[in-house]
Give the backbone structure.
Amino acid sequence: MKYLITGATGHLGQKVLNQLLALVDAQSVTAAVHTPSKAAHLTEQGINVVASDYLNVDIMTKAFADQDVVIYIPSKTYNVLQRITEFENSIKAMQLAQVPSVIFVSFYADQENNPFTMSPYYAYAPRKLATSGLNYAVVKNSLYADPLVPYLPELIERQALIYPVGDQAMNFITLADSAKAIANLAVKPELRDQGQVYTLTQTHSLTMPELGQIMSTVTGHHIGYAPVSNQEFAQIYAEEGDGDELASMYAAGALGLFDQTTTDFETITGTQPESMADFLKRSYHAE
Ligand SMILES: NC(=O)c1ccc[n+]([C@@H]2O[C@H](COP(=O)([O-])OP(=O)(O)OC[C@H]3O[C@@H](n4cnc5c(N)ncnc54)[C@H](OP(=O)(O)O)[C@@H]3O)[C@@H](O)[C@H]2O)c1
């Protein structure tokens, strides 16, 4: 079997690549990369690297030829129309290359009433796959736990989480666990190719006071919960360039749309996902 990963140099893509290399022969794995200079280390390790561009059907068709499973990790653009164009191009290339099996990596923000900026994309993509004639499975990630680690020093200073989600709980998954599930799904044909939809979550959703309590225990500093308004949240993170988009995401959280818990991680991997407490304990190192 030959496996190709798109977005292979990204945060998630690198981890999926490594998980896959732990399961199958390196010769059967190909990293499809957008910026070749970011993949020099992969070439040095003897990993197959091909050029890929979601805006170029010909390049992708060449990259996907003769592959058995394509793991598609989208770009991170917040421009909905561009992301849809990238996906339309990618589907066309997969059809031209007659890719036998596709794993689409998605996000659990696809409900009809979801106000997250990217929810139109996450609602559209599985329907596009369903009409494509391709064999596929969808893996929806919950919120990544990983960005919470570099956020801890700020939270210690604030002495509180400020997400504008009120009493609602949200569920998370680590990048490592997401990658583990995606790689396992790739090598288990009995679990894919039938339009299955998996949602990767930890075993418990957390309210913000519960998350703050875990963070307090791990860091030794009190981190409570003092939510700001959605508008304030957008303003506080405006300088980082995605304040509005993040605020729209937590508006979905405030509607309870991220309070989803499934056993899909266990179904795919046969193991339990790492808990938030264990993950933060393992990852947090006080300065
Ligand atoms: N669940 C969550 O909480 C959460 C959080 C953040 C992101 N996400 C989503 O998860 C996915 C992966 O996130 P990530 O953090 O791994 O993102 P990332 O590090 O930005 O990786 C995205 C990858 O896509 C590649 N790419 C960008 N434009 C491309 C194009 N035109 N053609 C081909 N490849 C292209 C990038 O390559 P270059 O760098 O070379 O352009 C990169 O390798 C994204 O879709 C993102 O929206 C989810």
About this structure: The longest helix spans residues 80-96. The chain has twelve helices and 13 strands. The radius of gyration is 19 Å. The pocket of NAP is lined by residues 7, 9-13, 34-35, 38, 52-55, 73-76, 86, 107, 141, 143-144 (CB under 6 Å).
